[in-house]
Every structure is written in C-alpha cells, then in structure tokens.
C-alpha cells in the first residue's frame, strides 16, 4: 500500500520521505523548471521589445526602399529591401513565439505551426547575415575599385544574389522539419527542443555546418570588407568629415550586429557539437539573434540618406503630436523629397560607397 514498506507496518522513511500526499501533476501550460530552464519573463520581454521597436521602423524602411526601387533601382537598395523583408517576416511570426513564451515555453498552438514558425524564424535570422555580407562586399568594392566596379555595378546582379541568398538560407534551415519529425516517441509539448539522442545525432552536425556556411564564413568576409572599407575611406582626402563619420557608424553598426546578435547563437552550435548536446544557455543566445530585427534599422539609417531623412521626419512628427491624437505618419509622404538624393549616384543607399 502507498506509504507503507514491504514489511507491512513501517512508513517508507528510508526510501521516499515526505512523498505523501503526492505532489499534483503540472497542468499542460506549466513547464517543469530544471537546470538551464529559461526565464520566461525575460524571453517574453525581449520578444515584445523587438516587435514594438522593429515593426514600425522596418515598415517605414520598406516603404522608402520600395519607392526607391521603383524610381531608380540600384544594387544597394535591392539588398536593403530584401533585408527589410526578412526582418518583417521574422516579426510576422514573432507573436507565435510570444505565445510559446507565455505558456512557459510549451507549444499550445496547432502542431503544424511549430515547424513552420521555426523554419521561417531561423531562415530570416540566417538570411539577414547573408544580406549584411552582400552590402559589405558592395561597399568595399565601391571604394577599393571605384571605376571598375561602377562600370559593372548592375541591379540585376543584386537581384540574382538576393535570390541565391534566399535559396541558400531556406535550404539549410529545412533541418527544422527534419529535427521536428525525426522522432522515436510521440510529440511532446516542446517545440524544436528537448531532442532525443537519435535526433541530436542528426541535428548537431547539421547545426555546425549551418553556422560555418551561414555565419562564420559571411562574418569573416564582412569583417574584411568593413575594415578595409573604413581604412580606405578615412585615407581619402576629398571625402567630407561628416560622411566619414557616418561610414564609421555604418561599419560599427553592422559589425555589432554580427558580434552581438549572431555570434553567441552560432557559438552554441559549435559548443553543442563538441559536447554532444544542446547547451542550456542556447535559448538566451537565440534571443540576441531575434533582437537583430530591431538593430537592422540602425544599419538602414547609416546606409541611406532617404531612410535617414524619413526617420528624422517621423520622429519630428511624432514629437510634435505627442500631446494630440495618434500620429498619422506624414513622413511616409515626404520620402520623395529625400529620394532626390538618388541623382547623386550610389551615395544615397550606400553611405561612403562612392568616391
């Protein structure tokens, strides 16, 4: 009988003390905290901050870049437009991640949404690194080989590169579906987490390859391009000082994006492969990657005169109407004025890219 030993009379003091009455089972929305369990409040707060700050700024950048592409397309604007689309796609699926965090990191939504949400989520994170690298290469070539590159600089090349980036990221992130359905047991309440040993045998090597191809290699190229971009630009005597400062700010913002947002998560892939398990701090590293959607508008600000003027106009408009009704975002109608800078060449979409 429960509470008694096999000898018949004594309570089970030596084997299971204080086990009666038994603890109630957790409800479906309650996650059992364990070593490395994420702080749900922190996860949810980061998601909300990213959504609130990233959505309006990326929407403003999207409208601005679409108008630029329609009026006068150029490679830099094409890459920036695709980067904005990837951020907005991540933000579109972020409410599903918020719902997951709101139920103590358990998946209470329809099961089919779990792999779809994570597939789009990880694809947008990794395709962002490729577009940032493409922008870095474009800037470096513009100052290192100004004449030769200007003769060969075509929007069609940027469109082809963008398509290749999307295909590469989408193909690699298909590991989400493999990791989700390659199970020996029934589906648990965790979404793309709590893998079995058989799953880890497949997922961990693929994560390592994913980080090598979609982060470490692009990061190396980006660092090389921006270091030399700034070095060459600062050495040019005919470049205004203000433009040099913006170029330095652009390089710092882009490299900070790689170091702060992307590096910790990809380091977790290397550590996981070595330790043969998912590191318990992986969830926190992933939060930094999510925050990339809020930092990309800083890159937009330093990259494009049109976006910079639109941001300033919007902030001025909001500040002037803060005591009144909700702002009507009149800045979206003024980007045409800032867009006149496209007549000066590539300096509009790529700060410091034209000598």
Automatic annotation (TrEMBL):
One Pfam family linked to the record: 7tm_1
UniProt-listed InterPro entries: GPCR_Rhodpsn (IPR000276), GPCR_Rhodpsn_7TM (IPR017452), GPR40-rel_orph (IPR013312)
Domain spans labelled G-protein coupled receptors family 1 profile: 57-300
Matching SUPFAM superfamilies: Family A G protein-coupled receptor-like
Keyword Transmembrane among record annotations: yes
The keyword Cytoplasm appears for this protein: no
Region feature Disordered, mapped onto this chain: 1-23, 333-355
Entry's transmembrane regions: 39-66, 78-96, 116-137, 157-182, 213-236, 248-267, 283-302
Gene Ontology biological-process annotations: cellular response to fatty acid
Membrane topology reported for the UniProt record: Multi-pass membrane protein
GO molecular function terms noted in the UniProt entry: G protein-coupled receptor activity
Subcellular location: Cell membrane
Alphabetical UniProt keywords: Cell membrane, G-protein coupled receptor, Membrane, Receptor, Transducer, Transmembrane, Transmembrane helix
GO cellular component, one term: plasma membrane
Family under the similarity heading: Belongs to the G-protein coupled receptor 1 family.
Protein name: Free fatty acid receptor 2-like
């Amino acid at each position: 009988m429960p509470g008694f030993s096999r000898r018949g009379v004594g309570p089970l003091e030596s084997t299971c003390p204080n086990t009666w009455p038994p603890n109630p089972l957790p409800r479906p929305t309650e996650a059992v905290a364990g070593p490395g369990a994420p702080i749900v409040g922190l996860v949810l707060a980061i998601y909300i901050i990213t959504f609130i700050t990233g959505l309006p700024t990326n929407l403003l950048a999207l409208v601005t870049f679409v108008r630029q592409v329609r009026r006068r397309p150029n490679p830099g604007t094409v890459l920036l437009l695709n980067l904005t689309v990837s951020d907005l796609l991540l933000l579109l699926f972020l409410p599903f991640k918020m719902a997951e965090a709101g139920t103590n990191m358990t998946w209470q939504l329809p099961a089919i949404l779990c792999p779809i949400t994570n597939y789009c989520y990880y694809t947008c994170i990794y395709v962002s690194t490729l577009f940032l690298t493409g922008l870095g290469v474009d800037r470096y070539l513009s100052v290192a080989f100004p004449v030769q590159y200007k003769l060969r600089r075509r929007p069609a090349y940027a469109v082809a590169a963008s398509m290749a980036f999307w295909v590469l990221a989408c193909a690699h992130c298909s590991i989400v579906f493999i990791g989700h359905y390659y199970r020996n047991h029934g589906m648990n309440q965790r979404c793309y987490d709590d893998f079995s040993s058989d799953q880890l045998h497949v997922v961990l090597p693929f994560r390592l390859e994913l980080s090598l191809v979609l982060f470490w290699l692009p990061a190396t190229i980006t660092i090389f391009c921006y270091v030399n971009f700034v070095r060459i630009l600062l050495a040019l005597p005919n470049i205004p000082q203000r433009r040099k400062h913006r170029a330095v700010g652009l390089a710092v913002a882009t490299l900070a994006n790689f170091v702060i947002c992307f590096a910790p998560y990809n380091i977790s892939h290397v550590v996981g492969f070595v330790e043969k398990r998912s590191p318990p701090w992986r969830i926190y590293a992933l939060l930094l990657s999510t925050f990339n959607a809020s930092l990309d508008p800083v890159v937009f600000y330093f990259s494009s005169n049109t976006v910079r003027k639109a941001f300033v106009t919007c902030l001025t408009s909001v500040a002037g109407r803060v005591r009144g009704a909700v702002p009507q975002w009149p800045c979206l109608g003024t980007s045409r004025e800032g867009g006149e800078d496209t007549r000066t060449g590539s300096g509009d979409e790529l700060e410091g890219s034209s000598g």
